[in-house]
Design goal:
This protein is α/β, with parallel strands linked by helices. The chain is built from nine helices and nine strands. Strands 5-4-3-6-7-9-8 form a seven-stranded mixed sheet, sandwiched between helices. A two-stranded antiparallel sheet has the order 1-2. α8 links the parallel β6 and β7. α4 packs parallel to α5, α5 runs parallel beside α6 and α7 packs parallel to α8. The structure holds S-adenosylmethionine. S-adenosylmethionine binds next to α5 and β4.
Length: about 250
């Protein structure tokens, strides 16, 4: 067996010290039996086949978006269904969406809101959100969604200056990664205690766990994850769904 970092035949380096090989093997086995199941294509297709209830309007939006060069930015349908599920579970009435793109997650959430529910949806792209608006209309939820075409930080600061702190139940953060902490801090003020912030892409295709990757977006997401881990103002869960979804419940 070739050693790493000077470890010998009978021991393994764990990052904080050496473990005997037998203990290391036992620990690895335990962690492997406890860790989340990896999803290959076959199992993921099965999961979708017995759980995804995607309304036709969302299917059409997904098909149209798949023709765009940036289609990969769209949330996955099972993730969007989870967001709608959470909004229903909390009986949310007022929500924030930071990063609309062609509108898939906003539509899934708006469909889960009551008739008098309201979403403030933030994006900077006229082009992408024109598609979103078309589908919001088709789905009969356009009256619930107030699209703000401006940098999201400006919109969130404006809501705060209007005295809307504590007035929202739910927020989804899914825009430029360098601003994740800025969005989070503002959302934390804007949602009520017991409100939920969902944050997409926190596993960043696995790059967060690869120390050789040091680009700006990856380091920003790492810093974001580490900050939330230490933040006593929230209860925290990081779900390995899609590209990683953090749920932060305001205490
Ligand atoms: C990953 S996509 C959002 C995907 C969307 N949640 C969905 O379900 O399809 C990110 C979006 O953030 C928007 N965006 C980027 N920078 C922004 C900013 N500073 N303020 C507001 N929106 C921004 C982009 O225009 C893009 O539409």
């Amino acid at each position: 067996m070739s050693g790493v970092g000077g470890e010998s035949e009978g021991e393994r380096y764990t990052g904080s010290g050496f473990l005997s090989l037998s203990l290391w093997v036992a620990l690895s086995k335990l962690l492997n039996t406890m860790k989340t199941l990896g999803l290959g294509d076959r199992l993921y297709d099965y999961l979708l086949s017995v759980s995804l209830r995607e309304p036709e309007v969302l299917q059409h939006l997904r098909q149209e978006t798949s023709q765009l060069p940036n289609a990969v930015m769209q949330v996955t349908p099972d993730e969007a269904q989870l967001l709608g599920f959470l909004v229903q579970l909390m009986q949310a009435r007022r929500t924030l969406e930071i990063g609309v793109f062609t509108g898939y997650s906003s539509l899934a959430v708006a469909l889960a809101l009551p008739e008098d529910g309201q979403m403030i949806a933030c994006d900077v792209s006229e082009e992408y959100t024109a598609i979103a608006r078309r589908y919001w209309q088709q789905a009969g939820v356009a009256h619930k969604i107030d699209l703000r075409l401006a940098p999201a930080l400006e919109t969130l600061d404006q809501l705060l200056s209007e005295g809307q702190a504590g007035c929202f139940d739910f927020a989804l953060i899914d825009a430029d990664k360098g601003n994740y902490l800025n969005y989070y801090e503002r959302c934390l003020q804007l949602i009520r205690p017991g409100g939920l912030i969902a944050v997409d892409n926190v596993l960043w295709s696995g790059r967060v766990a690869d120390p050789s990757v040091q680009d700006d977006a990856t380091t920003a997401i790492r810093r974001f994850n580490e900050t939330l881990y230490q933040d006593e103002r929230i209860s925290l869960s990081l779900l390995p769904i899609a590209d990683g979804l953090t749920l932060a419940l305001k205490r």
